[in-house]
Design a protein that fits this description.
alpha/beta, Beta-Lactamase, Helicase, Ruva Protein, domain 3, 4 domains, 5-stranded parallel β-sheet, 21 helices, 44% helix
Length: 449
Amino acid sequence: MDKPSPDRFEAVIHSISDGVFTVDSEWRITCFNRAAEEITGVSKSEALGRRCYEVIKSNICKDACVIQYTIDTGRPVINLMVYFTDKQGLQIPVSVSTALFRNIRGELIGGVETFRDLRQLEEYRKQVENSYSFEDIISKSNKIRHILDILPTIAVNESSVLIVGETGTGKELFARAIHNLSGRGNKPFVAINCGGFPETLIESELFGYEAGAFTGATKAKPGRFALAEGGSLFLDEIGDLPPLLQVKLLRVLQEKTYEPLGSIRSLKADVRIITATHRNIEAMVVEETFRQDLYYRINVIKLDIPPLRERMEDIPLLIKHFIGRFSSILDKDISGISPDALNILMSYDYPGNVRELENIIEHGCVLCPGSLIRAKDIPDWLRPPSKEISAASSLDEVEKQFIISVLEKNNWKRLAAARELKIHKTTLFRKMKKLNINPPNQARHSKQE
C-alpha cells in the first residue's frame, strides 16, 4: 500500500467541513484548513507558524487548554462546547475535539484540534428557548461597555433595577442578562408588557385569580408573580401601569406578598423585580401620573441604554451579527454587505433602534441572491436616488464620514477621538492623512494660502 503523501493529507483536511488545525510540540500551527479560516475569520497565511493561543482566542485557552488536557491525561476531548472570539470580537459557539500526534517511537510530536461551528444550532435553540444572554449584547460603544462591566455586579445583588431607553434599544436583552448572571439564573424569567393589556385584565395577569373570582373564571389561574417564583419578573413599559396597579405593585415590593383576585389569603412573592420603560418617568412623577414612592422603589439601580444613533460605531458589528443569524435561519451563505448598502445604513438615524436595524438586515437576507447584501436588497424607503449612492459608495468614504463625525463630537480633539475609536492616536493621524481629513481651522488656512 502506498504511503499517504503530505499533499493527500492536505486534500483530506481541506475537504472536511469542520475546522481543523494541527500544532507542533511548541504549540505552533502547522496546518489550518479552509473551514477553520471561514469560522475564525483568520486566513491560513496569518495562522501558520503562530502559536495556537495567539490565533484561536477561546474562553478556555489560558486556564484549561484542551490539547494540554489530552497530553496530561492521555484522554481525548470530544465535543466540548466553548466560545471562540473572532477578529471583530464576536463570540462564536463551537464544539471542540482533540487528539495527539506521535512518531513511530511513540514520542509526542504535536496535536490536532477539530471544531464545529454551532452558531446555527445555537440560534435555533435561542429561538425556541428565548434565552439570549450577556454574550448576545453586541457593542464596542463606551456607554454600553460600561454597562456590561457593571452588569455582573448588579446581577448578583437583589436590588430592583430600572432600565430606561427608547423602544427597540434592547432593554429586555439587558434584563435577561441580569437574570442569567444572577443567583436566580436557573429559575424562571417571566416578562410582561404592562401596556399590552387592558386595565381590567392587567391585575389578573400579574397576580392571577381564584375560581369564581369573576364571570367565566371556572378554574384558578396563576399570575406572572406565581410563574416567576424564585426567579425574575420583568415588567416592561412600567410607565403604562394604571394608578390602581401602581399601588398594588408598591405593596408587593414593600411587603413581599400579594393576593390573587378572589382570594382571601396572601401569597409570598420570592421574585426579583426588573422594570423598563421608554417614558420619562421623572416627568410623570412631577405630573403625578406615576407614584413617587413606587418610582423610588423600582429605581434602586438605573441603567440608561443609549439609542443606536448615539453609538453608530456599533452598526457594522450588529450588521455582521444579524447577517450571521439570518444566514443560519434562512440556510443561506451570506458573508457580508456591499459598500453602497453599508453607506446607506450608516447614514440612517434609526428611530426604531437595534430592532429596526435587525428587521432591515432580515429583509436584506431574505432578498439577497448571493453572498453580499446589496443596496437593492434593503427596503426601498431607505434607499436615496442612485446618484446619491454612487457619490459615496466606497468603504473609504464611509470610514471618512464616520471618523469626521467622531472628531466633530469631540470638538476635533484627536486624542479624545482616538480613545473613542479605540485606536492609537498615530493610527488616527495616519487615517486622517490617507482620507484627506483636515481640521476646520487647517482647511481655512489652506484656502487663504
